[in-house]
Fold this protein.
Amino acid sequence: MPHKHLNGEEGFTGLEAAIVLIAFVVVAAVFAYVVLGAGLFTAQKAQATIHAGVQQGSSSMEVVGNVYGIAVGQTDHLSYANTTVALTAGDTPMDISQMVISYNDNKGGHIGNLTYMGLALDTPDACTDILDASTSSPSWCISESINNQTSGALLDPNAQMVLSIYLPPSTTPYTQFTLNFQPAQGAVLSIQRTVPAAVTPVQILY
C-alpha cells in the first residue's frame, strides 16, 4: 500500500501550545493592567472634579442673625449695613480680606467692588468713621471679631465676624438691594434686603 502524505499544517506540540498560551496570558495581563490603570486615573479625576464642583457650588459662608441698616446724621437713606458672617459647617479658615463685596439695587444703583479697609476693632466707632469718609471710594471693614482664635482677617470655624458695609444714597425707603459676597473659594453668598418705609438710626432689614 503506497504511503500517503497528508496535506496541511502539522499539529502543535505540547511545548508550542504552552508558549502560545503563555503569550496570550501575558498580553491579556498587560491589557488588563492598562485598562485598570486608566480606570483608576479616570476615577481619581472624577473624584477631584466632583470635590471641586462641590466647593465651587456651595457657599463657604452664611449669615448669622439679623442684618442691620444704619443711618448716620440723616433720615432719607441708609449709610451702611452691619451683618454677621460665619463659616458653614466643615469649612476651613477663610481669609475674609480676599473676599469681594458688590452692591446692586432696583433703582439702578451698582458698586462692583467695594474697597476692603481692614479691621477697625480699636474703638466701637472706628469702622463707622471709615465708612463715613468712604463716599468717594465705597468700602467695607470688619468691625467686630467674635470667638476668633486667629488674629487678623482669618475667620476660624465656630467664630463670627461683623462686617460693616457702605451703602450708597440710593438706599432710600422701599429700595430693594442685594449685597453679594464672593469668597476666594466657594459660591457667592447673596443677601437681599429692603429699606423700610421710615429710616431710623438703627433698624433690622428684612
About this structure: The helical segments are 14-57, 126-132. The chain is about 25% helix and 35% strand. The radius of gyration is 33 Å.
